[in-house]
């Protein structure tokens, strides 16, 4: 997956300390010095993290590496000369840091001044209203998400390499859920898009449930003269926020963060239907509502105070996973009613905890399939952020770069290519009969296997997967089989391509769901023995032939 880990900061150690000052909401680690990440925040193994980049030129994500490096390792002395407010805050911290760790000296004034300076010097973004006791968003990871979305994700919707039914064109419209007082994502998005002449006029809706931050967000939009492109809107809290006693199956009265936002957008447009969006994005609240006292408690490790944030910014029932699951449930409900075109083209989330990322990836991949989800990482050193994006666009390409790919090869000694192909064809026919699959022979050196997914395995494995939330498992059962089938390629659960050249058998598999993964593993396990005639079946057959020949020779 696209990953960017900036170089070691060297003399700019203070910026890493600044990241720590942003609190667990934006850092996900208790402290830079002396603190350790909790077991809940880290998963040691994730086999799915090995995945192809979205585009063949996977290094495209690194085109902004110079800018990202300058954001992660800024020259504080130069910023002090250009921005007096930052200079005053920085000099005060330098004085205090002479006898204690730099991170322990970080103040909210310094965090605000640094964010303002970075936005102004790189994008000419002016923040006039950044209130105290609200979250101050670090710029580097926010810009990384915007760059990933603009350069990698959105082109997938129209390229034709990822989905067999690409969009004719982008509408250049998006939604930021939980925009906050700074409205940083919309401002960064529009400012970055200005540098790409080929894009159209972007329009971003910026929603929030906190009535206090909407006037502040509007002021920041006005100060940059972007009222025609960014519109902050106040939305009601989700059903889960209002009451945790929600029904197992969401009915017309159950609304998550996405649905609440979209309905207010539709109302603002004086429309009875939900708008079509190219994307929605969010930086979900870090804490569960049961952990709201953690916001005011000192950090573990060095005992420093946590970064100021409001309850709306820091808490949600179920924390990051609960917030994103509610968004996903909104989308499931819309899709089950045959309105998949109203789901944003991409949903992009930045996770502060790796466990949240792992849980979300499992949820989305199990329900939508591997060809609908991708991910990236960004972080200086241990302060990593995990980004996940998923799409409900129908009919992914069988050989989509997003599909899980598995490759292997082996050499068959003493057998002609023609005979190898004949053996492969016989195996393909036998496997097709056993597993309800289909086979195709293209020329004399290519054999393909696939399973069209007509048996609707999506409902079966979603029902059996106990790691999925019960309400998700129940809702998946309500999606009509014909719509569930639309989430798979025309070839279905998997596509295995086998080529033969100079006695070498090369296998490449494209897997789109857990069922397909199990079948591909079975094919790979059986194929060597079938082609080389070394498995148990062929050993028994050879033994019987030898036994039949013995009386004849006698």
Question: What fraction strand?
Answer: 5-15%
Describe the sheet with the most strands.
8 strands, mixed
- Provide the residue-averaged pLDDT: 79
Annotation, overall tally of beta strands: 13
Estimated structural class: alpha/beta
How far apart the termini lie comes to 65 Å
Give the neighbour order of strands across the main sheet: 1-7-8-6-5-2-3-4
Radius of gyration: 27 Å
- Tell me the overall shape: elongated
Fraction of residues in helices? 40-55%
Poorly predicted sequence stretches spanning 5 or more consecutive residues: 1-63
Number of helices: 21
Characterization of the model:
- With 554 residues, the chain is of the alpha/beta class.
- Helix content is 41%, strand content 13%.
- It has 21 helices and 13 strands.
- It has helices at 13-21, 24-27, 65-72, 76-82, 84-96, 108-123, 139-153, 156-159, 184-193, 213-223, 239-242, 257-268, 311-314, 319-336, 354-368, 417-435, 457-464, 470-478, 481-485, 514-532, 536-553; strands at residues 3-4, 173-177, 203-208, 230-234, 279-282, 346-351, 373-378, 385-390, 404-411, 438-441, 446-451, 494-501, 504-511.
- β12 (494-501) and β13 (504-511) form a beta hairpin.
- α5 (84-96) packs across α6 (108-123), α14 (319-336) packs parallel to α15 (354-368) and α14 runs parallel beside α18.
- It is elongated, with a radius of gyration of 27 Å.
- The termini are far apart.
């Amino acid at each position: 997956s696209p990953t960017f880990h900036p170089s070691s900061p060297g003399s700019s150690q203070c910026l890493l300390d600044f990241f720590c000052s942003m609190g667990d909401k934006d850092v996900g680690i208790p402290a830079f010095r002396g603190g350790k990440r909790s077991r809940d925040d880290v998963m040691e193994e994730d086999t799915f993290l090995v995945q192809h980049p979205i585009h063949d030129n996977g290094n495209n994500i690194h085109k902004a590496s110079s800018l990202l490096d300058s954001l992660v390792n800024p020259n504080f002395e130069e910023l002090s000369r250009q921005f007096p407010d930052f200079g005053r805050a920085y000099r005060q911290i330098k004085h205090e840091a002479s006898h204690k760790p730099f991170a322990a000296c970080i103040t909210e004034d310094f965090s605000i001044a640094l964010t303002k300076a970075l936005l102004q010097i790189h994008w000419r973004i002016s923040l006039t209203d950044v209130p105290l006791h609200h979250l101050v968003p670090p710029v580097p990871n926010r810009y990384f998400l915007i760059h990933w979305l603009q350069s990698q994700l959105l082109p997938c919707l129209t390229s034709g390499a990822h989905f067999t039914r690409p969009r004719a064109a982008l509408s250049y419209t998006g939604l930021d859920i939980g925009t906050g007082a700074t409205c940083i994502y919309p401002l960064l998005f529009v400012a970055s898009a200005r540098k790409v002449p080929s894009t159209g006029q972007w329009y971003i809706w910026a929603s929030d449930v906190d009535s206090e931050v909407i006037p502040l967000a509007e002021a920041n939009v006005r100060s940059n003269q972007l009222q025609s492109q960014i519109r902050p809107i106040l939305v009601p809290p989700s059903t889960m926020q209002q009451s945790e006693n929600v029904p197992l199956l969401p009915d017309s009265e159950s609304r998550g963060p996405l649905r609440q936002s979209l309905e207010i957008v539709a109302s603002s447009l004086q429309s009875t239907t939900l708008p079509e969006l190219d994307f929605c994005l969010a930086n979900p609240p870090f804490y569960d509502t049961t952990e709201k006292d953690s916001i005011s408690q000192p950090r573990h490790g060095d005992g420093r105070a946590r970064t100021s944030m409001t309850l709306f910014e820091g808490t949600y029932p179920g924390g990051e996973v609960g917030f994103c699951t509610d968004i996903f449930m909104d989308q499931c409900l819309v899709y089950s009613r045959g309105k998949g075109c109203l789901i944003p083209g991409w949903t992009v989330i930045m996770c502060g905890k790796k466990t949240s990322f792992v849980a979300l990836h499992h949820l989305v991949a199990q329900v939508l399939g591997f060809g609908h989800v991708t991910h990236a990482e960004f972080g200086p050193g241990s302060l990593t952020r995990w980004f996940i994006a998923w799409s409900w666009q129908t009919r992914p390409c069988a050989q989509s770069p997003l599909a899980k790919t598995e490759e292997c090869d082996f050499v068959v000694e003493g057998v002609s290519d023609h005979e190898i192909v004949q053996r492969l064809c016989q195996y393909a026919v036998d496997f097709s009969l056993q597993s309800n699959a289909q086979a195709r022979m293209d020329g004399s050196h290519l054999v393909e296997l696939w399973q069209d997914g007509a048996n609707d395995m999506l409902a079966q494995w979603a029902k059996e997967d106990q790691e999925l939330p019960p309400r998700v498992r129940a809702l998946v059962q309500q999606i009509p089989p014909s719509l569930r089938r639309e989430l798979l390629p025309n070839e279905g659960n998997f596509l295995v391509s086998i080529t033969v050249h100079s006695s070498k058998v090369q296998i490449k598999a494209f897997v789109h769901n857990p069922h397909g993964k199990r079948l591909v593993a079975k094919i790979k396990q059986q194929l060597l023995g079938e082609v080389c005639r070394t498995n148990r079946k062929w050993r028994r057959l050879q033994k019987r032939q030898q036994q039949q020949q013995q009386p004849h020779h006698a």
